[in-house]
Amino acid sequence: MHSEPKKYNCIVVEDEPIAAEILENFISRDPALNLVGKSTNAVHASNLLSIHDVDLIFLDLHLPVVKGFDFLRKLKNPPFVIVTTAYHQYAVEGFELDITDYLMKPIPYDRFATAIAKFKYLMEAEDALLEVAERDYIFISSGKKQIKIILQDIYYIESLREYIHIHTKSETLTFKTPISKIEESLSSAMFTRIHKSYIVSQSKIEVKSANMIQVNGKKLPVGRTYKPFIEL
């Protein structure tokens, strides 16, 4: 294992110079955070994301031309996002976009530190999930616990809004995580995404057709966009 502390690359997307300066100061106090760029608008921010491997964006919602949430929606694979805003009403819109935290301006340092602690926890949990992807089991976070799941036991994984249900030989386990996150940690040699809501274990498939796959007696639909990836 590496003994040196992990560094996280971040960018600040903020068009108010004073607010940007405060964030830059706060970031410089944390040795784990590495500010790789600052931007006052979404176009330049997109460029920064294409140049750097960014782990975290500090995003002001009131940007010129393209607003913060519209910018986020266009990102293919967004990093973690901490939103900075002077307006309370945006938190609700952000739920669907999986925002790590909201900082109300003017931002107190201790509130900034809390948001960073939350980001680091999520980042480490994600790293841990990816590290075990090579093994024959995965650990999934459930609150403060890590639940071990043997890959061979999984029949299929079902997504229901922000939850996933992992159907195994003996039980169904429920976790609050997006299905795309779990898909990243599973070997594509063992598991196939067949629908926006379903991932199946290839060895457990009993019947397959162009529109349906049967696993453990349960018929699951095949989504149109996933059909090309399913061999018949």
UniProtKB/TrEMBL annotation:
Domain (HTH LytTR-type): residue spans on this chain: 138-206
Cross-referenced InterPro entries: 2C-system_Tx_regulators, CheY-like_superfamily, LytTR_DNA-bd_dom, Sig_transdc_resp-reg_receiver
Domain Response regulatory: 9-120
UniProt KW Isomerase keyword: no
Modified residues (4-aspartylphosphate): 60
Example GO molecular function: phosphorelay response regulator activity
Pfam families membership: LytTR, Response_reg
Superkingdom, natural source: Bacteria
Annotated keywords: DNA-binding, Phosphoprotein
Keyword DNA repair among record annotations: no
PROSITE patterns: HTH_LYTTR, RESPONSE_REGULATORY
Entry-linked PANTHER family: TRANSCRIPTIONAL REGULATORY PROTEIN DCUR-RELATED, TRANSCRIPTIONAL REGULATORY PROTEIN DPIA
Protein name: DNA-binding response regulator
Organism per entry: Chryseobacterium lactis
